[in-house]
Every structure is written in structure tokens, then in C-alpha cells.
TrEMBL record:
Residue span(s) of domain OCT: 354-438
Pfam families in the cross-refs: DUF1967 (PF09269), GTP1_OBG (PF01018), MMR_HSR1 (PF01926)
Ranges annotated as biased composition (Basic and acidic residues): 464-503
Residues the record lists as binding Mg(2+): 173, 193
GO molecular function: GTP binding; GTPase activity; magnesium ion binding
Positions of the OBG-type G domain: 160-336
Name this polypeptide is given: GTPase Obg
Gene behind the chain: obgE
Biological processes, Gene Ontology terms: ribosome biogenesis
Amino acid sequence: MVTFVDRVTLHLRAGKGGNGCVSVRREKFKPLAGPDGGNGGNGGDVVLVADPQVTTLLSYHHSPHRSAGNGGFGMGDNRSGAAGEHLELLVPVGTVVKDADGTPLVDLVEPGTRFIVAPGGRGGLGNAALASPKRKAPGFALLGTPGWEGDVLLELKTVADVALVGFPSAGKSSLIAAVSAARPKIADYPFTTLHPNLGVVEAGDVRFTVADVPGLIEGASEGRGLGLEFLRHVERCSVLVHVLDCATLDPGRDPLTDLDVIVAELAAYPVPDGQTPLLERPQVVVLNKVDVPEARDLADLVRPDLEARGYRVFEISTVSREGLRPLSFALGELVAAHRAEQAAAPAPERVVIRPTGADRAFDVRVEGGTWGNIYRILGEKPERWVQQTDFTNDEAVGYLADRLDRIGVDDALYRAGATPGATVVIGAGDGVIFDWQPALSSAAELMTAPRGTDPRLYQGGRRTTSERREKYHEQMDAKAQARAELEAERRAEQHGWDVEEDA
């Protein structure tokens, strides 16, 4: 049964925004007292929260589909819809969030950090909010926009100060159990540790965490054993501890060759940009199992060679607890020095985000098609406005045309070479397709028409008296001709005449 998961794909869906309401207030002696449609509620967000009490992504492995609440619809009497309920997902500290393409979005390394991974949709405005001195009684409201929907990858990287690395059965789990309150699985066969274990160690005034990762073997970088799958959990460590088994019974193995193999595998692991390579960090060598007489003799033999390489060497026994206290205080000193170095480091450069100007709110792309060019409009505002438009309401369509014209869509289409009747698509993929008519983008507020309609959408204006008279005469002449033809057919049937020959 799976008990530890450090990588999972979440399928998220944020809440949809509620639609705005079209309503007219009715009072005594005032049957049409003005618009009073309320706004729709915003959809709920999906929020990731770094919680130190959570240590695995197992719950999301079993149920990866998560959704937030939808916003309520607006109502009459200026009543707004309820906002959708936010969904908070607790993740371990040290979780890296990536998009579906593998691009990192955020690194949750601080407890309590919150990140809105899937923002909810916006609620639509009701006709009361859309009213203005020029458009006093809107016959339409805006629709709510859908929330963000897609996949994100969660990858756990353990946040620890010290990492224990070494061959399988070298005694790493026994060491972390001896110096902390952690209780990992310990057995006399290789690859007992199948997932990282964390332990907290106190050495004087310094308190630090130790991570025990599954054992490495030669060829791990090529996929042998557990490979480098779990080395992501040592990326954040400030000190590496090489645990070497001095009592191994495997032929061809000794502490020096084991160290060479482990160092080669660590060198093959690429760390993210901006981080110190693993082999450039402080390293300590621990010669374990010196409670065995032969192991102590071997430790005394290889210690000068290890010190000649520049390593600080400690001889320990997790059974007799020999050498554990000096090791703990030495690791505490290294961790304290690293923390002081980080505190003295200059603060990272402040990132200033400036909003884009109105002239860069959208892009027009010309795409070749079978029946001519297609002009695609991409931008956050135009795409959102299309989602908010009720295309069954003519007045709402005219309002959309005015909004697009205000940000310069018509001018941009002219510059791109579009002509009236050209195919225009707003949004990526299929989007919303329509035939571009620049005449539709002018002053909907100044036009009088029945509520819910826009006279610009109808070709042709009101007919004059002479045009109506001419149309009436044409209809009368057509009716007289039809009656004459019917009468001729009736007489031909009575007398048996051949209408064509008689003609």
C-alpha cells in the first residue's frame, strides 16, 4: 500500500462567476422605476497553503480532482449573488508547484504561505451597475466568467538542514533514529527506506532537521536501484553527511570506494539554477558501526586517507551511541554558520510589476485559411468580455462592440488589413467567430430602441411614404396577376381547352 507520495498531478477547477440580473424596480404609481438587477457572485478560488503538519501528498494521489464553489446569480432589488466558497488545499512545506508544461509557478518553502493556483471566475454585472446617464435602463446584464480549469504538478522537496546519503544498509535510518525522535523502518536488508524520513536534532542552542533518503548504488544516475528519484529531497540541505559502512560483508566494497561511488552519483545530479551544486556544500564523513572490532580497525585504517581529501571524519556507533554527541554538535556548528551566512546575504532584488498599457491590451494575428485570412484577437480583456456577453440579447452585443471599439480593436483590424465582412475570431482555439462589421461600433448609448435590442444590428432603416406606397402597389399587382392565372386555369378545365394551344 502506498504511504508516501512526493509527486502528484492535480486536476483543478475554480468556481464559475454568477450571472448578473436584469430587473426593473416596480413601485406604486411607478411601474418602471429604474433598473435594480444585482451583480453575480465571484467564483471560489483554489488556494494552496503550506502546512508544516502535512508531510506527504498522499491524499491528492487518491483524489486528484478538486473543485471550488460557484458564485450565485444576481437578483432583483439590487441583491448580489453569494460568492463561491474557496477551496484550501494543505500541502507540505517545500512543495514546488508547476504548470502542465513543467514550468515552476511557486516554491512554498515558508510555513503558512498561500498561493492562488486556480482563480475563480468574475461575477457578471447586473443592469443596475451598467446604468449610466446615457443608458438609463439597460435591457441586459453581463454573464459570469468561468474559473480557471487545468492541471498542475505538485513536487515535494524536503526542507532539511542536513542530508544523510550513502549505500543501502549503511546505517542512515539507524543514525537518524539515534539522534532524533524519528522512528523510521530499520531492517537487515537493502532498500529498507523507501521514502525520505525527517528528524529534529538539538545540539546546544542549535536546532536543525536531518533528512534520510533512500540508499544510492553505482549506476543510480542511469536508473539502477531507486535511482536519483529521491535526491530532490537533498536539494535544500546545507550540509551533506556521507554515511559509510565499515562492517559491510559485500565483496569488493570498502569505505573509500563507497564514497567515490556516492560522490560520482551526486555529481551527476543537476540542481536548479541559482542553487549551490551538491558537491560544493559542506560535507562530513561518518564511519558507522565501529562497535564491531573489524569495523573499528578498518575505520582507523581509512581515516587518514579521508582526512587527506579534506573531509571531517567521525567514528560512530548507533548501537553503543559512541561518537553521536560530537557529531551532533559539529553538524550544529555547520548549520549555524550557514544560517548566519544567509542572514548576512543581501536581500533579493525587488521585482516591480507594471500593468500593460491600453495599446498593448490585445494582439491581432493574421492566420491564413481556406477561404481567406482569419484575424484572431488575443488578449485578457477582449476574451473576458466575450465570455460576459449574452449573444441572444442584441443590446448586449452592441455593448460588446462599443467596448471593443474603445480599446482600439477596429483600428487594429484596419491596420492588419481586415475589410468589412472579414472573419474575426476572439480567443484561442475555436474562440468566438463572427463577420466583422465596423459600422456596429458607435454610440450604443445614444440610440433609442426597445429594451434588449440594438438598431445597429438591423440592416435598413424606416421606409418612407413613397417606398411603402410603391411596395403596396407591387403587392396588389402581384395578387391581381395571380387571380387572373387561376381564373384562366379554371375556365380551361371546364371547356377542356388546351391553355398553351389556345394561347
